[in-house]
């Protein structure tokens, strides 16, 4: 049976960073250029947002602190308090600042690793739509004590973070490499090593770039193909392209599994006009049902 697709939110400018909160049965995401954080509750269909003072790039709940989140805000990681109601988010504190040597950088993708450490990547300044200062970004790990560790540098756009604990693997993408990297991952220390390329867009005739990704319980990657109008299912162990699922938006930005059984895939998108208007449903968040796979629960960030 073919997957079923539905737009579940109204369009935003640059939807990104979806995080399914399994306890709340709610999806959190951001719209970077609208400077807003978002919450969508499938049971009620309610979609709320709150504006921040800066560009939010991810929103992840903090473990053990209800209504508290870490948010990437330009080059800062901040703690936000938000009950999920419209326009009620409040800045609590700054957790960390990065890339002081590149003040025009900003965060892009981020996730908590299986132990709740925050892995967060940055990117260079976008000086006009689709054009960036290259090789200015880094990948960081921010531990529960707030200490910041740079894991990689010379990155164009940090994207697509996910882990396969069973195989001690961490997957990452630098979007303008048009590839997916695999690292050896040590869950006890949070260290990564021995990067190698496991998938190349050019080997499969794919257009666009690698954006956000997630992993299913079979160890296959689900990748947002920005400028490609699709989500890709990839087996990273053999570099195989298993499936292409069309999305009615050119700029597909990220994916995460959600729903009561973690068998629905939520897909964020953008409606950026880079010389061509992106009409609705571009910019919506979509839900894919009937994929016949399941994801892992998203992990909250641990902070002392």
Automatic annotation (TrEMBL):
Residues of the SMP-30/Gluconolactonase/LRE-like region domain: 14-271
Cofactor(s) in the UniProt record: Ca(2+); Mn(2+); Zn(2+); Mg(2+)
Residues annotated for a divalent metal cation binding in this entry: 16, 159, 211
Keywords, comma-separated and alphabetical: Calcium, Cytoplasm, Hydrolase, Metal-binding, Zinc
Catalytic activity: D-glucono-1,5-lactone + H2O = D-gluconate + H(+)
Catalytic residue positions: 211
Cofactor note: Binds 1 divalent metal cation per subunit.
Compartment(s) where it occurs, according to its Swiss-Prot or TrEMBL record: Cytoplasm
Gene3D superfamilies the record matches: TolB, C-terminal domain
InterPro entries: 6-blade_b-propeller_TolB-like, Regucalcin, SGL, SMP-30
Full protein name: Regucalcin
Organismal lineage: Eukaryota, Metazoa, Ecdysozoa, Arthropoda, Hexapoda
Gene: 101745537
